Fold:
Amino acid sequence: MNSKMMKLLTKYRDEQDGSIAIMSAICMLFLILTVGLSLDYSRLSQASARLKATSDFAALAAAKESDLTLEERKQIFEDVMTASLEYSSGLDGLEYNMNVVEDDFTVTLNVTSTSETELFFYDNLNEDVAVTVSSEVQVGKEGVEVSLVLDISSSMSGQRVIELQEAARRFVDTLLDDDQLEGRVSIALVPYGGTVKLPAELEHMLNPPETTDNWVDGTWNGCLSLPLDGTQSALTPEDVYDYLPDFTSYSRRDPWCPAEGNELVGLTDDKDRLNATIDSFSLSAGTGSDVGVMWGHAVLNPAWRGEIDDVHEDLPRDFSDKTKKIMVLMTDGGVTGQRHPGDWEMDEAHETPPFHTSTSNGYGGNSDFVLACDAAKDDGIEIFTVGFLMTKYWQITRLEACATIESNHTIADTGALEDTFENLANSISSLRVSR
Structure:
């Protein structure tokens, strides 16, 4: 019985050899088809991604220049695409349609690009497949003017000022290295401690004193005695103020008037100049945020055009929709009132400069700070505020109130200041260019 069964099974197996071969061939064909389709899909996706990236880049290049004709924009687009596709394997040929809408403030460019790529099966059939992508770029034509108002008070000692320098450099580099914003961004730098140290160009605002003996080297120290009494909100180029002697307060280590190298820098796109000043930051006694905001406002105010820096006589631009004006204020504490040594403290019989004083003008500076923030916002300046390691509720709320809107206020902890400033720079950039 078993012998007969084995013979039947053997006969059945021999008769099925052809069927198994057919099934194997079908499975192999299916496998080849699956692998081929996977390869084709992968190649097509990669080609589409390369073409999209190239098209976006070329569209941005064609859009970012203002006052060009459609033909000029097409030529820029073609030149960039041709040069890029030459080094992009798997893409050949270019056809495109472009549409441009331009007004006083933006250039919006839409382009549909088509190229060809070889696939696995189509390659065997000597046929290429068309790859089509669309790019839309909107570029603002407005100028961007930013004042960086930075606290270098004594409380910013040690790691704090190091983090500030790193963050400020990152901010400057992020904006001024952005090709999309080239020629349209300028930055002013306003470091402040007890007050703001001014460049020599602003000495005309000084009411010359009867003696220069109250300055360490006998020449103007770059600082003015602002009569802040809770009513001051802004500064004008016609203002004239009394001198501020060289003195210290709180401790004898840090001067009230910031040391040489910490001078205000007017609007510029000179990255090296801005970073050199940032690198030279040294501490100053007092936290004159009221004075800092007033000068942060002044460097963006067209009334000061040509006054601060004769290299850029066209800056600051007029207040208008064509120019976005932004102030970034960073501090780690509350406002301290302005100080000035009394006559008895400067008596030659007692000591020579730098003097030391704890004499206040009687005002805490908070009222002037609020007025200065409001005056800047009234002129259309958008204010961002950063509280560095700030924990006191009243300081936080006052700084938050200075910001244009609540979301423009940030508290940064140790190690987070650099990222905070980079995010601010990127947000400013995105206000100008959208894709």
Remarks:
- The chain has a mean pLDDT of 84.
- The CA atoms of residues 94 and 115 lie 5 Å apart.
- The first helix runs from residue 2 to 63.
- The chain has two domains: 20-140, 143-434.
